[in-house]
Amino acid sequence: MTEIAPLADIAADLTGGRTSGLRFLDDTGTLAVVLDVTGLAEPDRKPLEDKLRDALLARPGVSSVRVAMTAEKKALTIIAVGSGKGGVGKSTLAANLAVALRRRGVKVGLVDADIYGPSLPKLMSSEGVKPEAQGSKLAPVPNAYGVPMLSTGQIAAPGQAIAWRGPMAGKALEQLIDARWGDIDTLIVDLPPGTGDVQITMIQRHKPAGAVIVSTPQDLALIDAARAVSLFEQAEVPIIGLVENMAGYACPHCGEVSDPFGSGGAEAAAAAMGIDFLGRVPLAMGIRLASDGGVPPAAGTDPAGEPFHAVAAKVADWIEARKAS
Ligand SMILES: Nc1ncnc2c1ncn2[C@@H]1O[C@H](COP(=O)(O)OP(=O)(O)OP(=O)(O)O)[C@@H](O)[C@H]1O
Ligand SMILES: [Mg+2]
Per UniProt, where does ATP bind (predicted)? Predict the structure, then answer.
């Protein structure tokens, strides 16, 4: 009978102590071992498993090796980007926030929860790139900005109408969030406009750690923002703060900033709601053009990216403070 202890030592040495439960399953030399791959990036797991198996198979008395890989399920910090109203710049902010956080060293991924109207593939230049399935889960699509991403827009053909009913939409959202995120620890989730089914599923099933609310300066949009705030507050999702987008118009010719909708309204509304104000992003031709071209302004050195970096700095502080508490 082959002794277990020396085999267990070999396995532990080889894997940096990641093995446990080594035992023979029968008298013909079938060995079983549990390999803990927590914290290892997806591509590093299989080579370690192979190395372990080969080393054990090389020992006398071992005829086959069954490796059971386990990984502690890492809780992702989910940050939802929402608004009560459509077209206020949630997707633009979500994309740039993710890129800016990445540039600050946060291991961040991006999910397009706008199941019916996905726009992140275009904003992140990954239209038509399909995610691969790894086992029963999806592998996020990489992009030039270092922010792996999943969107129904990468699954459906561009321009194709997505007409899923509620349960299917819920299932799709599940697949996007419960994916093989590897070493990502923070997910930015771009929500559809309003306070409907997808938002409620998202909040209840995938409990975000916090929410960023986007609003334009108009009173009407701010009323909608208050509605989004109350949706998150009812579900006890902390509000990270409010971002005022399309705040003031930066003239592309002279650079002068004018405020067609007045200024300071969003900041005052945030104060009235008792939530933090994360900053103003001006309405700028450069932001629209870069976004349409699939280059988030936060990815480059253009001054158009600066307001997004300022918002990201506050969100990064919030993430750090949450970790510390
Ligand atoms: N600060 C800005 N300056 C100029 N254009 C902007 C700005 N923010 C967003 N846009 C443009 O406004 C349009 C709507 O933005 P976006 O798609 O991000 O809004 P949304 O809130 O996600 O919309 P929806 O509710 O449809 O999901 C886009 O064409 C985008 O490029
Ligand atoms: Mg959007």
Answer: 84-91
Quick check: 162 pLDDT over 70? no
Same-domain pairing of 265 and 216: yes
Residue 221 scores a pLDDT above 80: no
Question: Is there a binding annotation on residue 91?
Answer: yes
Across the range 200-220, mean pLDDT stands at 89
What CATH number does the domain containing 219 carry?
3.40.50.300
* Sequence-ordered list of residues with C-beta below 8 angstroms from that of 260, at least 6 positions apart, any chain: 249
Report how far ligand 1's centroid is from the alpha carbon of 53 (Å): 52
117-129, pLDDT tens digit by residue? 889 999 999 988 8
Range of the domain at 282: 77-324
Report the separation in Å between the CA atom of 88 and the middle of ligand 1, taken as the mean of its atom positions: 6
Instruction: Among 81, 83, 91, name the best residue to mutate to test ligand 1's pocket (greatest count of ligand atoms within 8 A of Cβ).
Output: 91
